[in-house]
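Weekly structure sync, notes
Attendees: PL (lead), two postdocs, one rotation student
Agenda item 3: pending single-chain targets
PL asked that the sequence for the first pending target be pasted directly into the notes so everyone works from the same version. It is reproduced below exactly as submitted, 340 residues in total.
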Amino acid sequence: MTTIKVNSLPVLEVIKDLATAFDTNYTSNICEYEVRIPSKLGIGNIKAYELDNGLGILHYNCAFHDDMEIKFIVNEVHPLKFIYVTTGNLQHRFENEDKIHSIEEYQSAILANCNNYGHILNFKANTLVAQISVEINRAAFNLSSAYKSEDVDTTLYNLFTDKEATEIFYRQGDYSLNIADIFNTLKSNDDNFSEDRLVQNIFMQSIAYRILFFQLKQYLDESKNTKSQNVLRRKEFEQVKKAVIYINENLESYSGIEELTRHTGLNPIKLQKGFKYLYHFTVNQYVQERRLEMARNLLLKSDKSINEIVTIIGLKSSSYFSRIFKDKYGVQPSLFNKNI
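Predicted structure, written out during the meeting:
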């Protein structure tokens, strides 16, 4: 295993230390700083964005030939970190603990160490890891008007106002689709980097605040019991796709969204959000679209009667079927073949 040390803060100084450790140079462009991984060590890059109000972003997109350990150790209060793994797997541990946290693809972690203890990241050999870390210097981060409100969650209040790092904190889970969308926005911006320092700085500030907004919203959502949680996590995508397969295979007997809840384990609000996100339909709209498509194919390719088709697609009323079919295709189903 190769071990390197980063003994500086904030994120710009981290990039400088990494460049020194990798025996290479770093580059700067507006508010973006980048160190490329030398070919003798691996591939990819690590970028940093130094922003206002004590905010910074570290963006890793790299793979190393050998196991790589990066120790962030400096005798100062370390930032509050919001880590997101978009590709691969990352291992983290606190400098003062032996326990290893494995953060998988599509997972996030909120973490803060106590006193001046640092963080240690481990990258497995020949494994591409894409990871984004929003870093907050709590001594410089100013939300004093919000802190004065009695409506602030106690844990969040303590986490953001712990400027001396008296408490250790770790929380891990799957990140939401909203946050995944932000990462896609960040990725698409790589090819359209603004040449104006002000514009680019504001853009990256917005990225950091949007990530924090949706992460904290998710945190509050997770404080509820499981059945009342409404934020759709990235991994729950697969459950929504499972619901779609179920609908397509059971149109004749499908009875409603409660059936999907039992089959997938997702509550109705999450199912609706997932269908809207993936297919731009509510669940009922999606079911109706599939039923009408099946009916159209049966009218074109079979000799089945209207009543038979109504039964096959899971409807009970021929008159209702005729009405929604005409709304979509502009002709009564009894005349559809002739019109074609």
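Discussion points:
- The CA atoms of residues 252 and 314 lie 4 Å apart.
- The longest strand covers residues 55-64.
Action: rotation student to compare against the earlier draft before next sync.
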